[in-house]
Each structure stands twice: as C-alpha cells, then as structure tokens.
Amino acid sequence: MATTRVLDAKGINYGANEWVTREHLELDDILDASQPKKPGIDIFFLPGIESGPVKDAQFRQTVSDAFAIPSFFWSRACREANGFCSRNQDALPHYSGQAYSTSSRFLIKEIIPRGPEYGYDWQYMAFASLWYRPAPNAEESLVLLCFDLSAKMRGLVTAAFQESNPASWRDCPFGCYAVLAGVIAKCFDDALWGFREPVRNIEKSRISKAQCLNFDGMGVRYLIMHELARHIIHETETLEVTAATLGSIARHNTDFCGRHAGAKCTCMDDLDFYQSFVSNLIKRASSFQQRLHNEIMLSYNLFAADDNDTAKAILRETRNDGRDLTNLVSTLTLLFLPGTFFSGFFGMNFFQYGGGYISVSTSVWLFFATSVPITFFAFLAWFFYRGRAKQVEPQPHSAGWLDETSRVENTLAHTLTFPAPLPKTLR
Fold first, then answer.
1. Which of 60, 68, 337, 380 has the highest CB neighbour number within 10 Å of its CB?
2. For 263, phi and psi rounded to 5 degrees?
3. Where do runs of H (alpha helix) occur along 109-150?
C-alpha cells in the first residue's frame, strides 16, 4: 500500500535569523527536513495521531524511520497516557555527529461554563523531536513534530517560539522543551484558575442562611460540587504527571550537559523553573479540592441533620398518638373502676326481681354517695398529676438544629470582626 502523502500541514521555519510561516505542507516537505543537510529549526503541526493520514500504518512507519520515533508513540497507551517523555541518544546511527530524538505527551483539562453547570475540554499535546549536531562546534538542526494540538494550542506554541531567542536553547536537544514548558505552564495556570470562580460561587451561595437551608437548591449544588470535584481530581492528576515529566526532561538535559563538557545548557534554568512552577500549581489544585470537599461535607451534614430532625418529629407524632390512646383507656378506667369496686365491695343488691315487678333497695343511695366522690377525686388527682408531669418534662425543640444554627451564626457574628476586607487571593 502506498504511503499517504497528502497532509496539508502547517509549520514554521527558523533560518537566516528569522521565522517564516509555512502552509499546505505535505509528507515530502516534512521528510525533507529530516535530512540533516543544513542547520535550522523546523516545527510542523500535524493532525491528531488517531485521525486522518497519520493513522495510516505506512505513514507512521515512514515518519518513525525518518525521525527515530518509537512505536509506543503511535499506540493506544500513548494516546490515553496523561504524560511521559522518552529519549534516544543514538537517533541517527548512519550519520556522524550527535543526534538525539525525543517523544512526549502532555494533557490539560479545562472547564467550560454552561449555564448553572460546567462542561470540560481536554487539550492533547504530543511532540516528537530530532536534534542533530554534525560536529562539536557546528550549528545544530532541530525538527519538532506537533500532534493533536488544537487551534488554540497551535497559536500559543507558534507565538512562543517566534518570541523566543533560538540561540538560548537550540544548542541543547531538550532546549525546545524549555519553550514548550512555558506554554504548558501558562495553560495549566489558566485552566486551574478557571476553577476558582465556580468554587467561590459555591462557597458564597451558602453564606446566606435561607440559601443554606434551601434543601431543593442544595441538591443541585451537591451534584455540581461532585462534578467539579471530579474535574479537579483529573486536573491534579495531570499536574502531578506533568511536573514529573518536566523533571524527567530536566534530568535528561542535565545528563546531556554532564556527558558533553562543552555544552552550554542555557535552558536548564528555564526547565527547573517551570517544573517548580507546575509543582506549586499542584498545591493550588489541592486547595480547591479540599475546599470543595469541605462544602460537600457541609451539605451532607445538613441533609443528615434535617433527616434526623424529621425522624424526631415523626417519633413525637407517634408518641402523641400512643399517648392519646393511653389517655382514653385511663379515662374509661377512672370512670368505671371506682363504682365497680364499691359495688363489689359492699356486695349490695340494689335491685330485686320477683312477683312480676322490680323493687329498688332503699340503700341504693350508698352507691352514689361513695362512687361519685371517689370518681371525682380520682379524676382530680389524675389531672393534677398530668399538670405536674408536663411541667417537669422538657418541651421538644420546635426548630431543632435550625435554631441552633441560628444561635451559632449570631454568636459568630458578634464574636468575629475583621479590621479590613480579605484580599482577593484569600477569598
């Protein structure tokens, strides 16, 4: 099968102390740059690894042979990797001189506001470079292949190289990564600070008591917080991997300088700085993650407290229902027990049946004279006992934990005072 030659790629070239933009480049143009015929810098922006002609097996083999790209670079594992960097110190064994090839991948996650919710986008970046120096004091040549870059990233990378001074980094095989690291660090910084406003909005939305206790709205906030937390976890992961990758590049650069005493290694400071900068961004990502975790736990505890308050209210209602039934039985008992007791106690026969008529005993008044007062005093004693029991029994807190929340808020409001507004960096 013939190798695909149609690419319509773009690129920039540095020669004669100026950058020149190139468009509508085909595979032959890129392969021509792989031949170390003259010093210069060529940067090509190719399509994604899994799209278009780049997916063609023959294309990959041709480019791999020309630029000493390992087969792993084209694999699914590379595509799904969150970052790596590899090197080959003997990239062109059939040429004399020094030749280094590298391959790397970086990944950045950005959130995109979409109404009350947030979407996201991934910035994929894959690079393969070939650096060649024919003799110790000769001028170097560099070819950098860029894959999977979005239009935004292509613009940033192009501007970064055009604004740089090639003389300060072209003498090192990893010098181009000093420029790329600046772009990557800036994109990570922008992407990470994109989380600040959503996190702050969530924190501000629960400052008001009415909003804090709005459980319908809290359910929506709860889901948004979980989604943001998921994005921040991804961002933290890619930051940690990028910091490790930049550290690996810096070590490769140090190793190159140690092997070649005459190497200037002017890009070492930049690589160390950007590695440190990205490592510091991890702390900021961790802070966002902890702040979101704090809000999630607050929502969880408020829901749990509300459920507990509802359960206590149901328990009180159930207890009241049982109390009403008990009161009814007690009342009937007080009504009938005294009379029944005295009737049995005296063993009186108030009615006599005989002779076709009913006669009433003249002592029937004894029943009423004893049972009525006793029943009255029994009811009186019962009502007196109930009144005393209600005074001793603690009344249920009508507002439950909600009034406790109000009390704590009022206490804090009168206790905490700030002499000046907090600076924006601490909000």
1. 68
2. -70, 140
3. none
Amino acid at 151: A
- Kindly write down the DSSP assignment for every residue of 327-356, as one continuous string: HHHHHHHHHHHHHHHHHHHHT---EEEETT
Cα 183 from chain centre: 24
Q: What Å distances lie between residue 234 and 8, 107, 109, 284, CA to CA?
A: 34, 10, 7, 14
- What number is the average pLDDT over the span 243-254? 92
Give the strands of the sheet with 117-133, arranged side by side: 18-25, 9-15, 40-45, 141-147, 117-133, 98-114, 83-88
Amino acid occupying residue 260: H
Q: Is 368 exposed, middle or buried (CB count within 10 Å of its CB: 0-12, 13-18, 19+)?
A: exposed
What number is the average pLDDT over the span 245-264?
Answer: 79
Distance (Å, whole) CA 340 – CA 55? 102
In degrees, rounded to 5, the angle at the alpha carbon of residue 112 between the alpha carbons of residues 85 and 296 is: 95
Kindly report, residue by residue over 350-381, the tens digit of the pLDDT. 666 666 777 777 777 777 787 788 878 878 88
CA–CA distance, 424 with 369 (Å, rounded to integer): 87
- pTM to 2 decimals? 0.70
Q: Which helix (H) or strand (E) holds 22?
A: strand 18-25
Among the listed residues 133, 179, 130, the one whose alpha carbon sits nearest the alpha carbon of residue 156? 179
